[in-house]
Specification:
Blueprint (H helix, E strand, L loop, with lengths): L1 E4 L2 E4 L5 H28 L2 H23 L5 H18 L4 H6 L3 H7 L7 H27 L9
Antiparallel strand pairs: 1-2
Helix pairs in contact: 1-2, 2-3, 2-6, 3-6
């Protein structure tokens, strides 16, 4: 892979398989923990608290999945994608298609929801921002432990 800087070609070292797995491991674990937290929140918390905690964790899950699929993605980009996807899914509910799919599949109901609810939208932003914040903190901790190596996730 080559990048241009000040008219000179610069060689960017390729990541080894082990490095790629390590880079994906933390967001993958975070995604699993987020699913567990989301399912727990909906069963433990009542009413609006459970619903909006679930919305926040939904966007957070998408944030982690972006980093699993594209681990070199900057945190703000992953947050923007998480917010965009969450919002798109919420708006998709206006079509009635997710409700129809949800009537036949619990998985579709969990992933797509069933009913548009505008108050969900700010909680998606909270989840995306939470992901960016957590990834930034993890990146800072990783850099401090390894003596200054950089991570993109928190930027």
């Amino acid at each position: 892979m080559r990048s241009r800087r000040a008219g000179h070609a610069m060689r960017v070292p390729r990541e080894t398989g082990r490095q790629a797995v390590r880079r994906r491991a933390a967001p993958a674990l975070a995604a699993v923990l987020t699913v567990v937290a989301g399912l727990s929140a909906r069963s433990v918390l009542d009413g609006a608290a459970g619903k909006y905690a679930g919305d926040t964790l939904y966007a957070l899950l998408i944030f982690w999945l972006v980093l699993v699929v594209a681990p070199r993605t900057r945190g703000w980009v992953a947050a923007a994608v998480a917010l965009g996807v969450s919002t798109a899914v919420e708006l998709f509910q206006l079509t009635g298609i997710p409700a129809a799919l949800g009537a036949h599949s619990a998985l579709a109901r969990l992933v797509l929801g069933t009913t548009f609810n505008a108050p969900d939208l700010p909680f998606y932003a909270v989840g995306a921002a939470l992901g960016w914040t957590l990834a930034g903190a993890a990146g800072a901790l990783s850099r401090a432990r390894s003596g200054g190596l950089t991570e993109n996730a928190g930027r």
